[in-house]
Structure formats: structure tokens, C-alpha cells
Amino acid sequence: LGVSDQRLDALVSAARAAGSAGAKLTGGGQGGCIIALADDAEHAEELGRALRGAGAPRTWTTTVPAS
């Protein structure tokens, strides 16, 4: 589809290397946004550090309650 680029691919790879439960680009592409899933808050912080280390200018963490 041509909506990704090397920067987004590198961030997805960094999230996966840091043990993300899943990671992919989100949105319409070319916007520089990915989503990465973690098992808990501590791992989410680790993912954020890994993503910032890979060049992500900002990261956000949110919790989705179990149903």
C-alpha cells in the first residue's frame, strides 16, 4: 500500500525487539504513528524507552481494562 516508511518500520521493529505483544503502524500512514501492545504498565514503560531510543519523539501509555 505504500503507507509506511523506513522510520515507521524501524519503530515497529524496535517495539517487537523489546518484547511487544504486537506492533504496527496506525492511521492513514505517513503520519509517523505506530501502536505497540504491552502486557502490563512496567513493560509499557520499557517499550516507551525502547521506542524513544529508536527515534520516537514522543510516546503515550494508556491502559485498557480487561472486560
From TrEMBL:
Keywords: Kinase, Transferase. One of its GO terms (molecular function) is kinase activity. InterPro entries: GHMP_kinase_C_dom, GHMP_kinase_C_sf. Residues 4-54 form the GHMP kinase C-terminal domain. This is Mevalonate kinase.
